Automatic annotation (TrEMBL):
Residues 9-116 form the Gfo/Idh/MocA-like oxidoreductase N-terminal domain. InterPro entries: Gfo/Idh/MocA-like_OxRdtase_N, Gfo/Idh/MocA_Oxidoreductase, GFO_IDH_MocA-like_dom, NAD(P)-bd_dom_sf. Gene3D superfamilies: Dihydrodipicolinate Reductase, domain 2, NAD(P)-binding Rossmann-like Domain. Pfam families: GFO_IDH_MocA (PF01408), GFO_IDH_MocA_C3 (PF22725). PANTHER family: D-GLUCOSIDE 3-DEHYDROGENASE, UDP-N-ACETYL-2-AMINO-2-DEOXY-D-GLUCURONATE OXIDASE. This is Gfo/Idh/MocA family oxidoreductase. It comes from Pseudonocardia alaniniphila. Residues 138-249 form the GFO/IDH/MocA-like oxidoreductase domain.
Length: 372
């Protein structure tokens, strides 16, 4: 590398749409800091076709074989959720850093187990939550930390998307044992992670969910009220039943309202900053981002590689990466049991710690009145 930085050898595990559509462009955007040397897919023809399309020298059908032969510095996991845990564990044990697509794994138990395979200075596993990394979110995070907008009071975190019946014809979707949950786990997790990265730790969740229209085992909609350690109260909605799709977050502080409305990614134009009446114009103008960086895999990967350069834990890893899975676990427990859940309850011995439906406690047909 001309600037003296290391070039990292990358393996892509899973060659579905997200690998070619998001991860290859992200790698290509790193100015030579990363090079794909191998791909893995259980479908050998698909792996070979992907390798040929993107100029990758080696393709494999077995992860362990690839790890032994190519010894990558970084593995990017793009497989279905049910095999995230095994894939991440194998890579960490082979001394490869890991960047894993969402959802991280299928339970807090699996998540915590993987932390035992990390070592001080690396390798570490981080997770793909690119919405944290746009310039507007970074700027807002700095303002919250500095108290520039006043106290956080009220919030909205809504992921209102649409997925039809054909979407769920993919065998692993819509099942607790292979996807881990419905839109709460597979879709809304992105906006919830952004919310948590801004507002910090949550305290209690009260939730409802149902399977209203899709013939799946998980929920197709969930609603929750979440209280935070700061005292803020937030409404969270996750849906795959919403024809007008939107990802919408709103944060009301004592001196301003900040909103973002987008779908799968944002730039500064998607954000609105509204000062409290009486706040000086020049002060409000100082809240706005000074650069315009779109949320993307590209920008998160660049920061991940910086962490590798420094041999330190990346963002969205360890306790920081655990937050969204914690909230989802608490939300499911509250919705299924009908009781509020405190964050402190989510520990070993709790059935929802090991299985997000509490071990088969959610029956879509009974809960939502759906005829199956």
């Amino acid at each position: 590398m001309p600037d003296g930085r290391k070039q990292y050898r990358v393996a892509i595990v899973g060659t579905g749409a997200i690998a070619g559509g998001r991860h290859i462009p992200a790698i290509q955007a790193q100015d030579g800091r990363a090079k794909v040397v191998a791909v893995v897919d259980v479908d050998g023809d698909r792996a070979a076709a992907f390798a040929a399309e993107w100029g990758v020298e080696h393709s494999y059908t077995d992860l362990d074989t690839m790890l032994a032969a190519d010894q990558p510095d970084l593995a990017i996991i793009c497989t279905p959720p049910s095999v995230h845990h095994a894939g991440v564990q194998a890579c960490l044990r082979a001394d490869a850093w890991v960047w894993c697509e969402k959802p991280p794994v299928l339970s807090l138990a699996e998540y915590d187990g993987l932390m035992a395979d990390e070592r001080d200075g690396g390798p570490y596993v981080g997770y793909v939550f690119q919405h944290r990394f746009g310039s507007a979110a970074r700027t807002l995070r700095e303002h919250i930390a500095a108290g520039a907008l006043g106290r956080p009071l009220v919030g909205i975190c809504h992921t209102l998307w649409y997925r039809d019946d054909a979407y769920y014809e993919v065998p692993w979707r819509g099942k607790w044992e292979t996807e881990g949950g419905g839109p709460t786990m597979g879709h809304g997790i992105h906006q919830m992670d952004l919310m948590l990265s801004l507002l910090g730790d949550w305290r209690e969740v009260r939730a409802m969910m149902g399977t209203l229209d899709r013939r799946i085992a998980t929920e197709d909609v969930s609603l929750a009220a979440v209280s935070f350690e700061s005292g803020a109260l937030v409404s969270v909605v996750n849906s795959v039943l919403s024809p007008r799709e939107v990802s919408y977050l709103r944060f009301d502080f004592s001196e301003a309202t900040v909103e973002v409305s987008h779908l799968y990614g944002y730039d500064n134009s998607h954000w609105t900053w509204t000062p409290l009446r009486g706040v000086a114009e020049e002060r409000a103008a100082g809240w706005l981002p000074t650069t315009d960086v779109r949320s993307s895999h590209n920008v998160q990967l660049a920061e991940f590689l910086d962490s590798m350069d420094r041999a330190e834990r990346p963002a969205v890893s360890g306790a920081d990466g655990r937050r969204s899975l914690e909230l989802i676990t608490g939300l499911y427990q509250s919705a299924i049991t009908g009781s509020p859940v405190n964050r402190a309850e989510l520990e070993p011995g709790n059935p929802f710690y090991t299985q997000l439906d509490g071990g088969g406690r959610y029956s879509a047909g009974i809960t939502a009145g759906v005829t199956r």
